[in-house]
């Protein structure tokens, strides 16, 4: 009694701490000021797909970065060659390196030495360039080490500048993180149209000063001015719309700008930008303006001439003014960009996702509705199957959900829409452990054992199966977390936490509840009963009174499965999968446009020069009914297209036809990202299969592992065939469904394998086919009950979830049915055939015998 009370107190403390950890996330806003700051910050956050906002994936333009680096090195090298009086042709610079040709091939040795001296002065550490001579041409090729160092520095510097730019805008809680080698993820809660943010982050803001070319200038470049902005300043008669001839050499770099602000010019009242130079820049600016009175000095921003005033007198104050017919917004943005600093290279938007606030609210409501209905169905199912003992399982499940939210809050994790789907799936899978325990206890009670002994043996025998099934599922989920991104990673986090907390609630918490139930009842007998029909089914098969000869149909099951898998592969060829933009690349916009017909939208798109965009009516966010005012626009993006500009053109065309249109969701995925997603998905599935193979090989034997992997492959092909046949979109959420299905399928097979292993130890001399039939029959109740509980948990999400989660819920329903049948008619027959081959070769079926049951007594 003392031990039970002690465990109850310990478990109660753990559960209380978990619930307290989750509490701040559910308190209304008016109550939070009364909480300590450290406690109020203990919350999980909602993903952008639930609260609305924008997700941008920016990639550093490595071509531009390498080009600029090589150009700078070429400028330094040519200056040194002029000083050495070596005649050369204009260097050819590309992202790969620098090519310098001589007018006199006899100067090659001198050129090589000058290049070596220049490199020695400019580089530190590992060599930045290698030299190669070919007749009268010297080629400087950038080393791989230097490339990687440039990339690392560029991304680090870009992260800092993006932080400063977004902080200047005053946005609430932007999330800025690095992804991969050259990419930056920016998440903007509450920003459903990130156009201005894209403009700010896509502007390199590299400002330099160049002298306008005159008759003495030798190295000249031509740049255009900012279009449609008339010059207000009186110093020059050159219009910004014309082409400027500038000296290539930079007179002064913009990095010397220490501060900049938008002000209104006193004479004209027009917005201008006043800038202040640092000490070095102020001295340099004073010297160069004093020596060039009467010349025009161009202010160049990202290869566009903003203004080009003539220097009337020396400017020694260390400050200046940039005018160019700016609007107040343009001048403010320019000042902010100058303050934040220039990016080392352009940031290209290679992925963009936005969710409007109304769609996010609908997703939350859908998740709550699906979760509550699923929980109610699971409760009804468990009470039907086990009576009052089903209430214990449901209470354990409820505690598990609370602990999941507690851990999410403790980690500060993000809950996404796929995460809600994962939570609902956990509800169904977590019941499996309780079903295993209840069925094991029933088996012990049928043998006439006491309640305490039945409880002990039931938990002990179920424990190994529960551990094996959870670990195999965690293998698939961990790969999804490691290789996934965004909302899909949120699914993996929720699933992983749920599987771990379910171990505690099903093994520890449930046991305490059952022990109290036995102790308080005071009865010497124990009965776990539910609906009489279910009880008769369990007593008939689980007790071994009736054994179904499943192996008699094993050959037919394998043949039918093979035929279905081949047919599924044929369906992948034609009609094929309906790839979402995650894999195909492209732009997708979902809008709500009342009083606007589909013909009006198409006409507006054609007039905007976008005839290839498909427009179709779609289901509303919260259900499957067709809504006449909800439309989906989609266009495939070509390899060389400006992805971000395509999205902007689509928005403008929609607003032209429907000014009151609400953009509920916008997605843009470039070809590079979609290719990465495809590679990641294939690799994740392969690694998941390999992980299952090695774990089952370790826990059972190689023929059990091979049978499971072959069966999983057959299950996956059929599920892919379901995608092709039903037309359900195949996207990243679908990949999450496949990996979750792998875990669930192996979970199901581990239960059967565990009973086969147990029977092999008990009766090693029994005919293997009869032993397999007896094992399947004994676990048939558990298999049916687990599949039923998982199906009823996911069913509301499949019915009410709409297109947002259809790529997950519908395949999971199909996959649960397929994997349940494959455990009986595919995995077990393969184990039988491989086991007979091992027996013919004189090999054992298992690694080593397990320890025999021990009798546990209770005072």
UniProtKB/TrEMBL annotation:
Keyword ATP-binding carried by entry: no
Domain SecDF P1 head subdomain per the UniProt entry, residue ranges: 239-345
Chief location: membrane
UniProt signal peptide: none
Domain of life: Bacteria
Every Protein translocase subunit SecDF P1 domain range: 155-212
Subunit structure: Forms a complex with SecD. Part of the essential Sec protein translocation apparatus which comprises SecA, SecYEG and auxiliary proteins SecDF-YajC and YidC. Forms a complex with SecF. Part of the essential Sec protein translocation apparatus which comprises SecA, SecYEG and auxiliary proteins SecDF-YajC and YidC.
Family membership noted in the UniProt record: Belongs to the SecD/SecF family. SecD subfamily. Belongs to the SecD/SecF family. SecF subfamily.
Function: Part of the Sec protein translocase complex. Interacts with the SecYEG preprotein conducting channel. SecDF uses the proton motive force (PMF) to complete protein translocation after the ATP-dependent function of SecA.
Descriptive protein name: Multifunctional fusion protein
Source organism of this protein record: Pseudohongiella acticola
Lineage: Bacteria, Pseudomonadati, Pseudomonadota, Gammaproteobacteria, Pseudomonadales
């Amino acid at each position: 009694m003392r031990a039970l009370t002690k465990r109850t107190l310990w478990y109660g403390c753990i559960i209380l701490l978990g619930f307290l950890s989750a509490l701040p996330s559910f308190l209304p806003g008016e109550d939070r000021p009364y909480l300590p700051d450290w406690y109020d910050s203990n919350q999980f956050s909602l993903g952008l797909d639930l609260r609305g906002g924008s997700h941008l994936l920016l990639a550093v333009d490595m071509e531009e970065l390498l080009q600029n680096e090589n150009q700078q090195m070429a400028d330094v090298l040519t200056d040194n060659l002029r000083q050495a009086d070596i005649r050369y042709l204009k260097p050819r610079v590309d992202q790969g390196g620098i090519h310098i040709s001589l007018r006199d091939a006899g100067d090659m040795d001198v050129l090589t030495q000058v290049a070596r001296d220049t490199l020695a002065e400019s580089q530190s550490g590992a060599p930045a360039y290698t030299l190669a001579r070919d007749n009268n041409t010297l080629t400087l090729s950038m080393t791989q080490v230097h490339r990687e160092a440039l990339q690392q520095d560029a991304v680090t510097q870009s992260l800092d500048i993006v932080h400063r730019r977004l902080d200047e805008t005053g946005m609430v809680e932007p999330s800025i993180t690095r992804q991969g080698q050259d990419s930056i993820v920016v998440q903007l809660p509450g920003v459903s149209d990130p156009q201005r943010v894209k403009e700010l982050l896509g502007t390199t803001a590299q400002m330099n000063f160049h002298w306008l070319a005159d008759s003495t200038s030798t190295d000249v470049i031509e740049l255009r001015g900012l279009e449609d902005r008339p010059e207000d300043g009186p110093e020059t008669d050159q219009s910004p719309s014309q082409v400027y001839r500038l000296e290539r050499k930079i007179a002064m770099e913009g990095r010397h700008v220490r501060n900049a602000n938008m002000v209104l010019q006193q004479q004209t009242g027009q917005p201008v930008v006043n800038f202040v130079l640092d000490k070095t820049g102020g001295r340099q600016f004073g010297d160069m303006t004093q020596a060039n009175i009467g010349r025009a000095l161009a202010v160049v921003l990202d290869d566009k001439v903003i203004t080009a005033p003539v220097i009337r007198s020396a400017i020694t104050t260390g400050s200046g003014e940039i005018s160019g017919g700016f609007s107040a917004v343009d001048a403010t943005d320019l000042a902010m960009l100058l303050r934040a600093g220039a990016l080392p290279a352009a940031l290209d938007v290679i992925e963009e996702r936005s969710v409007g606030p109304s769609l996010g609210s609908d997703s939350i409501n859908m998740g709550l509705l699906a979760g509550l209905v699923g929980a109610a169905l699971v409760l009804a199912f468990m009470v039907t199957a086990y009576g009052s003992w089903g209430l214990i399982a449901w209470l354990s499940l409820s505690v598990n959900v609370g602990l999941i939210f507690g851990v999410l809050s403790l980690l500060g994790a993000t809950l996404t829409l796929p995460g809600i789907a994962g939570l609902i799936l956990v509800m169904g899978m977590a019941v499996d452990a309780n079903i295993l325990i209840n069925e094991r206890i029933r088996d012990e009670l049928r043998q006439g054992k006491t309640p305490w002994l039945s409880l002990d043996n039931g938990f002990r025998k179920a424990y190994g199966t529960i551990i094996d099934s959870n670990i195999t599922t965690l293998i698939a989920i961990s790969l999804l977390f490691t290789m996934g991104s965004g909302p899909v990673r949120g699914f993996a986090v929720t699933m992983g936490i749920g599987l771990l907390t379910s171990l505690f609630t099903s093994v520890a918490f449930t046991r305490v509840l059952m022990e109290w139930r036995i102790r308080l009842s005071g009865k010497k007998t124990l009965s776990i009963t539910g609906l009489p029909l279910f009880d008769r089914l369990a007593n008939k098969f689980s007790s071994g009174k009736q054994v179904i000869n499943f192996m008699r149909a094993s050959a037919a099951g394998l043949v039918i499965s093979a035929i279905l898998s081949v047919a599924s592969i044929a369906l992948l060829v034609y009609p094929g999968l309906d790839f979402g933009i995650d894999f195909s690349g492209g732009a997708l916009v979902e809008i709500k446009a009342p009083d606007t017909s589909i013909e009006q939208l198409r006409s507006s798109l054609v007039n905007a020069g976008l005839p290839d965009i498909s427009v179709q009516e779609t289901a509303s966010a919260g259900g499957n009914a067709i809504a006449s005012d909800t439309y989906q626009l989609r266009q495939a993006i070509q390899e060389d297209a400006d992805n971000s500009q395509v999205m902007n053109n689509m928005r403008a065309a929609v607003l032209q036809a429907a000014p009151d249109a609400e953009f509920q969701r916008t997605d843009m995925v470039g070809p590079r990202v979609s290719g990465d997603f495809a590679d990641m998905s294939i690799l994740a599935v392969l690694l998941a299969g390999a992980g299952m193979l090695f774990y089952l090989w370790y826990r059972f034997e190689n023929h059990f592992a091979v049978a499971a992997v072959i069966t999983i492959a057959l299950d996956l092909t059929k599920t892919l065939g379901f995608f092709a046949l039903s037309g359900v979109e195949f996207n990243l959420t679908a990949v999450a469904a496949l990996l979750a299905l792998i875990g669930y399928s192996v979970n199901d097979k581990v239960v059967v394998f565990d009973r086969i292993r147990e029977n092999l130890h008990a009766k090693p001399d029994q005919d293997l086919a009869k032993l397999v039939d007896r094992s399947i029959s004994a676990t048939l109740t558990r298999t049916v009950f687990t599949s039923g509980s998982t199906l009823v948990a996911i069913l509301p999400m499949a019915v009410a979830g709409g297109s947002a989660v259809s790529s997950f819920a519908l395949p999971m329903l199909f996959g649960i049915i397929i994997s349940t049948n494959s455990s009986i008619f595919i995995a077990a027959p393969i184990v039988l055939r491989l086991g007979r081959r091992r027996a013919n070769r004189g090999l054992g079926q298992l690694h080593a015998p397990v320890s025999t049951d021990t009798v546990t007594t209770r005072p």
